[in-house]
Amino acid sequence: MDRRKFIKNSALASSLFLVPSFVKAFESVATKQLGYKRLVIIQLAGGNDGLNTIIPHNNDLYYNARPRLAITKDIIKLNDDLGFHPSLAPLRNLYDKGELSIINNVGYPNPVRSHFRSMDIWQTASGSDEYLQSGWLGRYLDKYGKKPYNAIEMDEQLSLAMKGEHFNGIATNDYKVLHRTAKDPYFKNVLNHYNDTHLSEHNLGYLYQTMIEAKSSAKYIYENTQVKLSQQDYPQNGFGKQLKNVAQFINSGLDTKVFYTSLGGFDTHANQQNKQSRLLSQYAESVSAFVKDLKRNETFEDTLILTFSEFGRRVKQNAANGTDHGAANNVFIIGKQLKKAGFYNDLASLNDLDTNGDLKYSIDFRSVYATILSQWMDVSTEGILPSKQKSLNFI
């Protein structure tokens, strides 16, 4: 494999080599054990329309604002006011069993409607006027991580959320390819070429250590995942594959606390109905299979699943039968040990929108993070979240 191909195709290169902050990972290792509880994050990229996901089926304002876009048929009514989009039918069982909590109106002050900026805010847990270079999960790893595989992202590149100030997770969309890449002769030649003296001269000693740990991580993930290959049927799409791999990692007992997955395509400015319906089906069917897989292997009880999107959509439909960028949105929490299942709170009033015609937020997304860190991961939020946030009571 030549160098150009290696850099282009290697998940190791994109997730480790190009992240300078990673090289300090081994200067300080926390003494506290990571424990057994795991967090799985699902990012619905593009800004999912929360109002057509959790539908106010008894509200005339909703139908008036969306004469062609409102969901009118096959709504899965969960109570007198709110219901699921029909494509979320596979999640009804989780709702009925008290294993799903729906938090409405999640956002932050002075919302930003740029995809990239809003996603940075969610991934770093910053305010809308702050610019941070590390993610909230990366800072968690700074304090409690030991190895790159303590946090795994199912992608070729590592998101900002998983990058710490001194410690990063690892990214791979195929752990078998990751293992083969680490065994590639080019990788070995690089390690052999940059001996300690050469690295010292060019101040690259940490990079050498990073590459050693990357190769070790790839070997660890590959060898341990072979212990428990999934027997569950998953949808035949990229997102289903991500969750299948995560289930194999969890069921094989990998020492991994955080898994990060994503499903894109939710930027529905035009012809939203069919596109969102298809994406929500992929999401719900894959999550349902994932939960069944964990339950079959008795690992669901120790797993919490968080689903979010960087913002919601405008209440009124646009002229292209779609919706434009909005603000507050709903967040899904799935787990066995929920204190408050079902609807955590009511939907924001459609009578009282902000100046842009968006739903007003009532719950800061960083409170969701604070609750997960303190109540589920059993760690202090100090040094992880840049501002003090109150905990909620969903777990």
UniProtKB/TrEMBL annotation:
PANTHER family in the record: BLL7424 PROTEIN, DUF1501 DOMAIN-CONTAINING PROTEIN
Signal peptide limits: 1-25
Species this chain originates from: Winogradskyella echinorum
Keywords: Signal
One Pfam short name: DUF1501
Protein name as annotated: DUF1501 domain-containing protein
Highest taxon, organism lineage: Bacteria
